[in-house]
Amino acid sequence: MWHHPGKAFCDEDAFEDWDESCHGRMDTKANRREYPECFLWNCCGCTLTSRGCVARVPGASGVPGDNGSVSLDTESDCDRADHPGELKVDSNEWDNHDEDVHGDIDTAANRRDYPDGFKWTCCGGQADAPGCQADDNEEEGEEEED
């Protein structure tokens, strides 16, 4: 079972032309249902409709009081369905990072906090790039823009 251990919050930048004095509050149940892409989880930065970022396996550790949550440090489901490639570390962005001192680079937290340090193999976009899957109406043989 997957879940988000954090809290959802309104991404005010996603409501560009929203004026609360005219339209009302942004963060409402109705807006969360109608505009789920405008609300993010603080645990991983994914939208409300994304699969959870933590797997819950009840009693997995056998330690009393442990709920069995296992963080997905190297896997992120943020818009993954919209990218057919893999998310890889862009070593050019991590010149001063020593994994023996600073810890692993390829973690969910780093992908969320430093999206420019990761590139999709399918399109070359950074971790937070919008999906790149071709539109069904796109003509075959059309070259991608860099």
Textual characterization of the structure:
The chain has 146 residues and is α+β, with helices and mostly antiparallel strands. It has two domains: 1-71, no CATH class; 73-132, no CATH class. The protein has helices at residues 20-23, 29-34, 99-102, 108-113; strands at residues 2-3, 8-10, 39-41, 54-56, 69-71, 87-89, 118-120. It has a three-stranded antiparallel beta sheet, with no helix packed on it. The radius of gyration is 18 Å and the shape is elongated.
Provide the fold topology.
Elements: E1 2-3, E2 8-10, H1 20-23, H2 29-34, E3 39-41, E4 54-56, E5 69-71, E6 87-89, H3 99-102, H4 108-113, E7 118-120
Antiparallel strand pairs: 1-4, 2-3, 4-5, 6-7
- β-strand percent reads 5-15%
The SSE order reads EEHHEEEEHHE
Number of strands: 7
The pLDDT mean sits at 74
**Helicity level:** 10-25%
**Biggest β-sheet strands, sense, barrel:** 3 strands, antiparallel
Q: Count the DSSP helices.
A: 4
Domain module tally? 2
Q: Walk across the major sheet and give the strand order.
A: 1-4-5
Distance between the termini: 39 Å
